[in-house]
Design goal:
Blueprint lengths: L2 H18 L1 H6 L21 H15 L10 H22 L2 H19 L5 H10 L7 H10 L3 H10 L4 H11 L2
Length: 178
Amino acid sequence: MSSTAALELWDRIARDAIAESPLWGDALRPEAERELEPVFSTLAEERFALGLETIYEGYLVHYGTPRLFAAADQDTALLLGDYLYAHGLVRIAEVGSVEAVADLAELISLCAQLRADSAPGDGAAWAASAALLGAGELGEARLALRDRGNAAPLTALAEAHAGGALDQALAAHDRRLR
């Protein structure tokens, strides 16, 4: 993704949030404090970048250090994260397929379970999901993580399909989590 396209991505997420609710506008960090670092969209097809980073920002609002937002309190953070999840899924539906939306809905559910259980593996889930979004190849690997706590199949899929950007994406993800 070009630097111009990346800037447009962040501007669009911010503009749409402001248009949706003054509450989301109030939660935006000042421009000078925004951290415009794409994480998992670097592993996906470019058409999925906006939706994927919107959903990931929602995940960070819930569980980490967001790049664009700083919610005033936990209630606002919960609502803002849910808004970003929903808005990102709409964006994926507009450019993708039902399978891509289903993959991301499964990812959100799986990661919520992992966080509730204080279990590892969310980075592998995000990476494999981004790299194989809509391909229909994640089911068994997700089940291995969900049911047995085994992230190895998702890691293997991510390594096989994400290319050289995988290590950088996982390191950025680790830096953003609380």
